[in-house]
Amino acid sequence: MNSTSLPVGRVLRIVAAIAILVSGIVHLDIYFNQGYRLTGLAPNANFGRSILLNAIGAGIVAIALIARKEWFVRAAGIGYAASTVAIFLYTHSGGHSFLSFRHGGPVFDPSPQAQLTVIMGIIAIVALAATFVPAIDAADTAPMNLPAVGAAFAITAIALIGLTLKWRPDDSTTTPAAAPTTTVATAASTAGTTADSTAGSTADSTATSAAPAAGGTAVSIKNFAFDSNDVTVAKGTTVTWTNNDTATHTVVAADADVSFVSDNLPTGATFQHVFDKAGTFPYICGIHPRMKGTITVTG
Prior knowledge:
By secondary structure, this protein is α/β, with parallel strands linked by helices. The chain has helices at residues 8-33, 45-67, 71-91, 113-130, 134-139, 146-167, 171-174, and strands spanning 183-184, 194-195, 203-207, 217-221, 230-234, 237-243, 252-253, 270-275, 279-284, 292-298. 40% of the residues lie in helices and 16% in strands. A hairpin with a 7-residue loop joins strand 2 and strand 3 (203-207).
């Protein structure tokens, strides 16, 4: 090895730092662009925050790995990457929950973010574990020079802060919770509704329990999915969604006007919406945006 080449241990630390930073950026993308920030709705408030904290932690750990070679810094990097992979695998398999969140869908969903998170975590763990090989550890003696550490800090800060500013949504125009709904206590009172300001004469209601309206259509929410995710109805039909799942869900129109939106639906709760216009109406669960469905209205 010539005098200008980097020690293997330092190269491995840099590789691990890059992998962890990429994982953090993926978590930032999941938080803002995949709707996981909406897991801040009850009962999953802490899980949404943990996604954002993971991204912030990734930046801190990445800088520390580049700046310092102490064993406890490398051990912290391994712990960070291992815990991220472990929590991912735990919540994405076997119906397990973490901070009241249970994935409930395909293991690697959303894709490709999920695959990238696991791959980056494994790369970081292997690279940092290799730095503990005595010969590699002994050769990595000189500290990283200050300009290089400063450059690493600047790149990390620009990446995380810049992407946050780019991806951060304007909640004043995109948060569906502002849409009007009526919460009622019994099945009998579901007849009382409020006018939907974005749908003209259309009315919505949310209830703790209710049967589907006569002549209406029922959609069950179970196993983190809408069981009838593509429904065709005639104009004027009332569609009733019933949450038969163990987790809280919502029903949120995915059109530009957010033409209908439910309150949080705990287990057993229902939401009704009258479709009085012909067209195609996509919708999602506002807490778990990968849950999608479509109502096609004819006539």
